[in-house]
Amino acid sequence: MLKNHIKNKLNVMSGSRSNEQIKVISASLENELSKGSVSFMITSPQPSSDTAVISAKVAAAMAHQDKKVLLVDGNVRMPLLHETFEVSNSTGLVDTLIWTDPEKMVKNEKETNIQGLFLLPAGANIEYPGEVFKISKVNKLISYWKEIYDVIIFAAPAAIPYSEPYVLAAGCDGVIIVVQKNSTKTEELHKAKESLERSNNRILGVIYQTK
Q1: What are the percentages of helix, strand and coil residues in the chain, rounded to 5?
Q2: Which residue has the higher pLDDT, 127 or 18?
């Protein structure tokens, strides 16, 4: 079952290569946090459930450093994180984006079983995500969340076929790209990286997922 497949990968302290990279990236973000709250997006060149796995691991690692973390499931096409953390997906990011004033919106963030880590699920199913994914709305939300959380992490859909990652990344301080062993092609990685950089997105690192 996909939910169990993801949950079985969430042990940040295990010895896989990706976990070591996550700890290195989490440590490097400490310098960014000294300047204030940070927001970043995690994506992959092609669709993969590993992006949700890595996003959850990074969020957990930051929470374990006594940071208040908001993990946002930005993959409204294939939401997984509500199952991973066993919370309701009845409301979430899509519903939040519909509101024009963040201070008046219904709070859809859910507490998780990890202290300091909150999850905003994907929320309502929507046929055309582009109808609600607007840069101005996302930027307004990020500014609002930075007053509440130390770290905001967007788990995004794949960067090559979809437009939502570029909307989410526009308001973030950086991007992390997840690469799957024996799956991600070199040209796909280069294409995703170049496309994000052309949109003035800062690449914080690449995580190599081997399992």
Answers
A1: 40, 15, 45
A2: 127
Coil, helix or strand at residue 41: strand
101, two tokens: 């004033």
What pairing do the DSSP bridges indicate for beta strands 151-155 and 69-73? parallel
- The total number of residues written for the chain in this structure: 211
Q: What is the DSSP letter of 102?
A: G
The alpha carbons of the chain give a radius of gyration, in whole angstroms, of 16
How do 110-111 and 117-120 pair as beta strands?
antiparallel
Residue 23 pLDDT class (50, 70, 90 cuts): confident
Q: Which residue has the tokens 């992959």?
A: 44
The alpha-helical segments, DSSP class H, found in the chain are 2-7, 17-33, 50-63, 81-84, 93-98, 135-145, 164-170, 186-198
The reported pTM is 0.86
Contact 153, 123 (CB under 8 A): no
Q: What are phi and psi of 32, to 5 degrees?
A: -65, -40
Go through the domains of the chain in sequence order and give each one's CATH number. Answer: 2-9+35-209 (3.40.50.300)
Amino acid at the residue 60: A
Residue matched to tokens 């101005």: 136
**Distance between CA 126 and CA 95 in Å, rounded?**
10
CA distance 141 to 137: 6
User: Mean of the pLDDT values across residues 125-143?
Assistant: 88
